Amino acid sequence: YTAYNYNPSDINHLLANIILAGRLSLGYEALTTYPVTLLGMKLPLVGHGLDANGRHGNGEYFWIDCLYIKLLLQYGAVVLVAYIMSFTQLLRKYSKRNNYTVMFILALLAVHGIIDDAIMYLMYNPFLLMIGTELISAKKNVEYVE
């Protein structure tokens, strides 16, 4: 919401953009350049001066660092809503167990997603591993009950 409504002439937006190392303006550029769809679209993301094929290109740079904007544009509104709902459900589950340490870690991951998209990938995202663990333990509990 903040990236979509980014206004560089507003001092609050400008300060937030500076604190986030220019990510608000990049998010605004992405959201105004590409349409938001239900199922996403292929984005020509180019980072570190490489072209879309990974070869040294013309020095262009277009990479979306915000996990939520990247999920929204690349995979669509359906995936973003499912991600946020499952994240919230996992937090609710740990809240009922009074496991505040895991809740704190998950909250930090959620905030970290604003400035980095690395948690989208399995190797950086313990959230995906936690979902798998919860699903496996739920399946075992169902098997024991039967």
Description of the molecule:
The structure is a single chain. With 146 residues, the chain is mainly α. The protein is 56% helix and 0% strand. The protein is built from six helices and no strands. Helix 3 crosses helix 4 and helix 4 runs antiparallel to helix 5. The longest helix is centred in the middle third of the chain and has 20 residues. It is globular. 14% of the residues are buried.
**Beta-strand segment tally:** 0
Would you tell me the structural class of the helices and strands?
A: mainly alpha
How far is the first residue's CA from the last residue's CA? 46 Å
Task: Provide the helix percentage.
Answer: 55-70%
Rounded mean pLDDT score = 78
Shape: globular
Low-confidence stretches: none
CA-atom Rg in angstroms: 18 Å
Strand content: under 5%
Largest sheet descriptor: none
Order of helices and strands: HHHHHH
Number of helices: 6
